[in-house]
């Protein structure tokens, strides 16, 4: 069979499983109301949690930083280490309360690169089964022994830790806010287990950074001395792109020397680094945005709960409505779009089988009126689909 026929057959199979994806152009994606296919939609699908992606201060910072060039010209270990990096990494380490920090091109690269660099095939890694795909990919690349513990189940984690020899090097890794369920990791218990079993603890703060913890420094901030490696993205609440790894000088220096997606790639654009610095300055002081986001999240969860929807275990700005089948999730997302709401259907492999869902995310910029209107629309759509009676 030819390659083109083989690939075509694979796409047909994905389509039969309602797993075929397609790009749709979104205009004015930084705003609360977006235009997609000529339709005006309330944006309940973005990670721009604090509304900073379109903020004039970040856009100004990007313009000002472009004096260092449009591109970094090379890997940072060659001649791409322009002066803003040091400032950004110092800003991140001070904010996170760690000795050191390293900027990386994206959250995906940070997780894959750090895990592949830290782990070898003789090590054991314990990963929450709902951790982000980039964590799973980093583990697979490392060839370490992979133990997936039931979601947030500390008893199961401890059982697995006990089963492995004391002599094994162990690493525990978790999202702090889970990207598809919107619930939080039990960090206090993870720190306890990490200390009891002498493990290394890495946390992914992608959906917590800029929002939770003192000055938005993340849920791991209070446990900063017990967490060996903090990863966070600059692409969500910070409104930019890129990611950071923060920890002790020793750990960060090790990653700088061994992490392939750091060594073998061109440094981030100066304009992107400049926006990260400005975004951190803003999130550290702007409590108004954080409080608005928390109030909006609470309202969305309360309204959906009262309307009788299954929103799983969400306690954050990420709120799923569990549909079960791929077909139902895709149909609901499509019907919501028709009703004026941008929300995405999430299917396997992003979530476990039979838990397909429509994932809603709220930002600091939504109004209470918009959230209440959205819940009314969702109710109408699901009533029309025969889910609500
Ligand atoms: N970790 C988690 C938990 C995420 O949700 C994401 C993004 N969806 C990433 C890592 C990857 O981050 P980035 O988009 O910056 O590559």
Classify the secondary structure makeup into a structural class.
alpha/beta
Poorly predicted segments: none
Taken together, the total number of domains comes to 2
* Through-space gap between termini: 50 Å
Broad shape: globular
Write the element-wise H/E pattern from the N-terminal end onward: HEEEHHEHEHEHEHEEEHHHHEHEEEH
* Ligands, deduplicated: 4'-deoxy-4'-aminopyridoxal-5'-phosphate
What amount of the residues lies in strands?
Answer: 15-25%
Total beta strand runs:
14
Assign the CATH superfamily of the largest domain: Type I PLP-dependent aspartate aminotransferase-like (Major domain)
- Tell me roughly what share of residues is in helical segments: 40-55%
User: pLDDT average, as an integer?
Assistant: 95
**If strands are numbered along the chain, what order do they take across the biggest sheet?**
4-10-9-8-7-5-6
